[in-house]
Amino acid sequence: MMSMTEAPGAAGPYRLGATWDGRGTNFAVYSSAGAYGGEVVLCLLDEDGGGERRVPMAVDCDIWHVYVPQARPGQRYAYRASGPRDPARGLFFDGGRLLLDPYAKAMYPLGPRQLGCLVVDTSFDWGTDRAPERPWADTVLYETHVKGISVTHPGVPPALRGTYAGLAHPAVVGHLTHLGVTAVELMPVHQFLSEQRLLDMKLTNYWGYSTVGFFAPHSAYSAAGDRGQQVAEFKSTVAALHAAGIEVILDVVYNHTAEGAPDAPPLSFRGLANEVYYRLDPADRSRYIDTTGTQNTLDAGRPEVLRLILDSLRYWVTEMRVDGFRFDLAATLARQHGYVDRLSAFFGLLYQDPVLGRTKLIAEPWDVGAPDSYQVGRFPPGWAEWNDRYRDTVRDFWRGRPVVGGLAERLAGSADLYSADRRGPDASVNFVTCHDGKALADLVTYERKHNEANGEDNRDGTGDDRAANYGVEGPTDDPAVSAVRARQRRNMLATLLLSQGVTMLLGGDELGRTQRGNNNAYCQDNEVSWYHWPERPDPFTAFVRRVVALQRAHPALKRRAFLTGSGAPPDVAWYDRDGRAMTVSRWQDPATRFLGMLLAGDGIPARGAPVQDDDILVLLNADTSAADFAVPGRPGARYGLVLDTGAEDGAPAPGAELAVGDRCAVPPRTVLVATAPLRS
Q: Does residue 104 share a domain with residue 157?
């Protein structure tokens, strides 16, 4: 019989995690225990969890490893790391606790804050799967939650609702393709745990920003089972979305873990090498530096942590075939020396990596609690960024604030933020709503946040969500107020899709989803957060589909270079409510609530030769009075009206046309869009 130290294949310290080679499993885990006189042992757990067999491990350069011929897929395991518990030195070893493998490819539940690891056979028949590889300029993101999107869907079988298979069901995929979105941005699917504080309040961490397993798909989202089946089910979901032409972007949380504060019980990282994995306070090494607001911060300046992050990212690209990542609190990952450093090892390694360098990389470009936390516009080339400046400006314009100059900057692609690094408009991920904040329906319904159900006396969440309730706080039976609110939803979505940059929609907004005014629903795994699928088609869904199709049909709305106002005719021209070219006084006038934008359809930069499109006239009237607008354009041009937010589904009156020089009445709180084909 082969001994545990005479194994071929993947045996040894070179590949971390539990690697099944068809005959046995190599186990390898990083721990600094040996440096302090301790050791690590592998614990092979019984099926019923009632017993364990401890296996000694060899160590090479702090990587503990052993090959076990008998260990097959489905084998349950954990580690024990002995050594000193000396908080003053940042050491929290405890040989009495079972520890999770940071590289485990699957985990299974044992209790509310307790998991076990599983050996997994990662083989999978991908068939003809092929990544869509859609250019950034042609991307429409749809941020969604694996459970929330399908848990109440009447077209999804009950056994599949709220799971990876539910997301991949034709009823859900069909909805996405009908809308015209090209990529789903999935809220965290790495294995996560709920905080004890939430469990004590009978709540759970619904959003999932509390990772404990960076290689393991969250087991609770699996319809097939949580004993390793979740891996194949996730892969099947990716394949189904790819087959529909939809890319898969993962929201990943490498800035902190579910272990919480130093005085909480170790689950994995803290018990293996606390002083390596986490950023310790130099003045008191029993405490963490916290730039995440979660009581701990991973130290991405350490090579061991960088290896963990990059190994995880590569695994999800090569084994799970995802197409990109959105990095939660990404500024923290660049704090190699404590401050945000554009030359940090994290950025450099991703940029040169042959696997990761070709994926879509999106930053949430801030963290918390440091003077340099806000980093919008400061990420290096190769990165796109969530642009909260865009969000705030569009919301302010439609609630009547004097921001017309800022609005033009955002419509044109935010060159003020991204041009200095020779990035283009597609560095800006534009959005008006996201998971963090109010849903779109609530944005026009509630002036105040209503987070009472979160158990924090409504103190959590942002204070000013830049909403407007139009005279009534909360739902109303007043048809006039309801009509204004519905139109403002259409106005904000239309503005979003008429802007240069990458569009991101918040999933469920197209269905009128409400969180009842909660702007921080992270702990609401219930009807507050789940999608509300209507019994009959919603006109607003048709509106969203119309405006997405409008954007996708026109290269002039998806330019790869910033609008400059130069050229003959200029690539963009701006107009006031009378149809006259904007002047300095008009830009600076705080009473300005109207903006006209004319996009030229010729000479649009593209890969290869410039492309040609229609001229596109966009009129945005946030005023409470109508505008009498003189139509500009090329001599003899005739525009066909293609979008009117005054209509429930955005469809203008049939045959509506505008000629250059005509007077066009733009109703209050309305967006009109018209297109004119170029003459040959």
A: no
